[in-house]
Amino acid sequence: MQTTKYEHVIFYLDVTGSHVKRKDVTKAVIQFIKEKSHLNPLTKYGLMYFKAGGYPEYIDEDDSDLIVKKINDDWKDKESAENFLENGLFYCLSVVAQKSTERAGEFRVIVITDKPSNKPAEYQEALFNLVDTVCFFPTYIDIIRVGSQRFYSDDVKLRIVTSTTNGGLFYVSESKHLTQILQGLTKSKRFTALNQPEKIVIDEDNKEFYENLATDLLTPTPHEELGLCAFCNSEICDSGIYTRILKCYNCGSSFHEYHIGKYAFDHNIGLPHIFRCPQCDVLLKMDEHAVLVINDILIEQETGDFMDDEKFQGEYYNTEASEIEMEVNMESVLEQENLNDEYFEITEQELQNPSNKNGQTIPLRPSGFGFFQKPLVNLNGVKNPEYEVPASIDSSTPVNETFETQKTVTSPNSRSKRSSNTRKFLVCKICGTSNNIYNKKCKNCGVDL
Fold it and tell me: What is the pTM of this model?
């Protein structure tokens, strides 16, 4: 049965030695194009190979005679010193990506190679990543290895590439068997029948790749004619939201943002905002947030906006409560296990008057959060302008006076629970940080306590 779906087939000749005969390759290619064109007249063809010195050569031709002529003309000039399997596949897959932006269809790369490449492992990893990315397009890679060896050093690599793309790996001892293998590959493969999910979902790792492939819908200039929406056949949108006109860069079709947003979500390629133009099939994209809003999809709350969330305000920020108290986690400051006390004090016995080298008394910071605050004064007695003494604390208080700081712990069930226990601290003479009495060095500046 003849199919009418667009296909693009690329022949990649990674042939360096004399083991593969030119006449066998041309015969196999001619037979393949003849049979394939009969099964699907919409099939297009490309040819990829490397010239001497490692220079890539690629052509797109619909006529099998031109493909064969190119093979015959450049056969003697082909690269003969080194195989470039990975490099050639990179090039072929970039063509697939470019072609896929122009129209939907199926893409196939048929590789004929006669020996493994000696590229470093980095090439192999990059190839796997690219294959894993483009496989969301209906892309198949078939590899035919011509040679008499029983095992090859890249067998595992070839199997991974072909299996990931639902292709096949074939080994033939002589190039005269190429015709038989290619004839079996003329039948179109059905992407949806290859254990694929009903709806493809592209993961976040590959999102940027497809966003770069797609083209934004255009906003008409003030002097440009808007045109009628291809969905509602009207210039005015009655949706009430997202009513502006957007246009396809390729065919110039006009769409209301609301209507094309609905279409994008229902006909996306695996990401809700990337789709094909309903008129000309090119790959387009919209603002993702707009598509989600248009289709009533719940958008995850961003971290910085949680205070604006009505649920948060209703459940956790109850303005009708008699008092809202700050919960302070003192364990990170005290570094003491099983801390249940809610008061602490610095006794006069443990607190001495620290002074700088000029004999001036250095005011202490009662808070003791040395990780976040700077000293009131430096070692030369100069006041730090960035530090402001809290209004509740008298900066003139003698340093040997006992400070008592209250820590209030609140919970949804009990907001007024308090304790009257105390705990002693050692205050660093240099930076003023409160330290556990068992600490030998200041946890902030490291000096001996």
Answer: 0.58
